[in-house]
Amino acid sequence: MRRESVLQLGFCLLLLSSCTLPGSAVPVVKIGLIAPFEGLGRPLGYQLLPAVKIALEDANATGELGRYRIALVALNDDLDPATAARQAQALAADDSLLGALGPWTSETAAAAAQAFGEAGLPALVGAPLADAPRAGAPLANAPLAPVPIPGAQAVFSLCPSFSDIAAQLLQKAGQLGPGRVATAGPPGELLRALAVLLPPPADAASPGAVRVVLYSGGAAAAAEELARRQASGGQSVLLGGPDLAQPWLAGLAGQAAEGTWALACSTEPGGRAPGLPAGVAARFAARYQAQAGAPPGAQAMLAYWGARRLVGALAEDVRAHGGPSRAGMAAALGRDAGVPGLVWLQIQDGGFVPR
Fold it and tell me: How far apart are CA 216 and CA 106, in angstroms?
């Protein structure tokens, strides 16, 4: 291969965008990935990226999209909602881009979902959304239901609803033993969901320290909360939702984070993934280990499952209509009832481990 061709191929792969080499007539479609690739969230972005790349490599190798090939456009959101919205708009402006994956925190996902919905770009976001269960059924409380945003008929969450997450948090608090349970953290959908389910607080004069704190915020804010509680001699255990289950929590909070529990949106423990043939998840885990140098965590498994869902929707649309479109993608995503769920993680020895 001539040097110019080698350089061109390398440039396409590094940018993770579509390209057609000279003389090639293979049509290429794209999907987008929005994640943090710089700053505090960089570890998350680079946990997700290999998972998505493996899913797309498999699709191109097997030819499941017929004559089409699929390429990835990866954009950084810096964990910032405004940036996430702009990146969603940038993806939507590319007519050859037919679906998107991410963002991965509640705030960035909500901002991007609004932009995706307004542009009509099908998307699977990796965080819970207000009043949005999960992707795959038309009923408001069924898995993979569309986000209730005007025009957003094709934006789906890969996570359960905030009310489901709140219920799981309360159940875990009860399993940790008797004692008082309190809430803390910024106002938002999770705190409102907890307020609906949590019994009224005991009288201030009631004896007994708070045993479990159900935290509604993200990892950075939780690190500050944990440091304050450690400084005051508090012995309570902190439990939180998917926004807490981020790789930077332990680094920010240090020893104060030990024992913290978080729910993460993911496939089932042990690698079982809905809608994937037997053995696919295990093979993915082995390939991920080889590429990333570590086993896939909860969010990497979720990213792989989400990317496979987008590929499956594209393939279904190609089979049905001879070629993919955003409208066909949206319809295919809405028909799929298989969904991932929630897994418990706990910080032990400076990092989250499945429990």
Answer: 11
Q: Say if residue 299 is in the same domain as residue 218.
A: no
Backbone angles phi, psi at 213, to 5 degrees: -110, 120
Q: What is the mean pLDDT of the chain?
A: 83
In terms of domains, do 217 and 234 share one?
yes
Rounded to the nearest 10°, the torsion over CA 195, 197, 200, 201 is: -70
CA distance 219 to 337: 30
CA–CA distance, 232 with 151 (Å, rounded to integer): 48
Task: Let me know whether 152 and 175 are in one domain.
Answer: no
pLDDT band (50, 70, 90) for residue 338: low
Pair 13, 141 in one domain: yes
Q: What is the pLDDT of residue 135?
A: 42
Q: CA end-to-end span of the chain, whole Å?
A: 50
- Please count the structural domains in the chain: 2
* Helices marked H in the chain: 3-15, 42-62, 81-92, 106-119, 162-175, 189-197, 219-231, 249-253, 280-292, 298-321, 326-335
**322-335 residue pLDDT tens:** 999 999 999 999 88
Global pTM reads: 0.86
Q: Are 207 and 175 in contact (CB under 8 A)?
A: no
Q: Is 203 helix (H, G, I), strand (E, B) or coil?
A: coil
Q: Copy the structure tokens of residue 241.
A: 């939702």
The 3-state DSSP class for residue 248 equals coil
Residues 144 and 61 in one domain: yes
Q: Residue 41's domain is classified under what CATH number?
A: 3.40.50.2300
User: Is residue 198 within 8 Å of residue 212, measured between CB atoms?
Assistant: no
User: Containing domain of residue 101, as a range?
Assistant: 3-159+273-339
Residue in the structure block whose two tokens are 């405004």: 82
Residue with tokens 């009832």: 337
Measure Cα distances from 178 to 37, 167, 351 in Å: 42, 17, 27
